[in-house]
Amino acid sequence: MTLKKALAAAVLYAAGATIANPVLAAEPDIAALIEMRQGDMKKLAFTETPADAVETGFVDAADAPFSFSDFQGKYLLVNFWATWCAPCRHEMPTLDALQKTYGGDDFQVVAIATGHNPLPAIEAFFEKAEVENIAIYRDPKQKLAREMSVLGLPMTMILNPQGQEIARLRGDADWFGEDAQAIIRTLIESKKQGS
To answer: From its phi and psi, is residue 27 left (phi > 0), alpha (psi between -120 and 50) or beta?
Structure first.
């Protein structure tokens, strides 16, 4: 076999393996995502290997139980926040805009008020910040926040469609800035290519 034929066979094999294996095709290029970090997204730290999925639950506004497995199959932008947190108030409208623009079958913003945040205070916070596209979720005893090593607020993680953490950002950020949107679009596109 000539070198030219061997290279052609290798390329065809790699292409066939990617098409035949949707899990392989669905994996985002982390190195490319790291290169995309600009502005506020420079603080976004990607993990070398995805962290184990967390099954600790949280609740919605009606105290119905939820866990990240309820959102399996989507990329999640999980934001831990509190009503008393000034930086949270600053970034929440950008999270809301991100959900409005990209929320759907492939992506969702899951904002979780952690600690003592009475429901009326959360509703007032959302009303004042004009949040209309994000559901209310709560972690009143901070059990989920402790398990996920949330040491300050706001804290935001990106979970892959299997519920594994792949990135984390400490502090507030403009989640609707061009750089954040480019990263989210890339993740959504990698999922669609794997479907």
So the answer is: beta
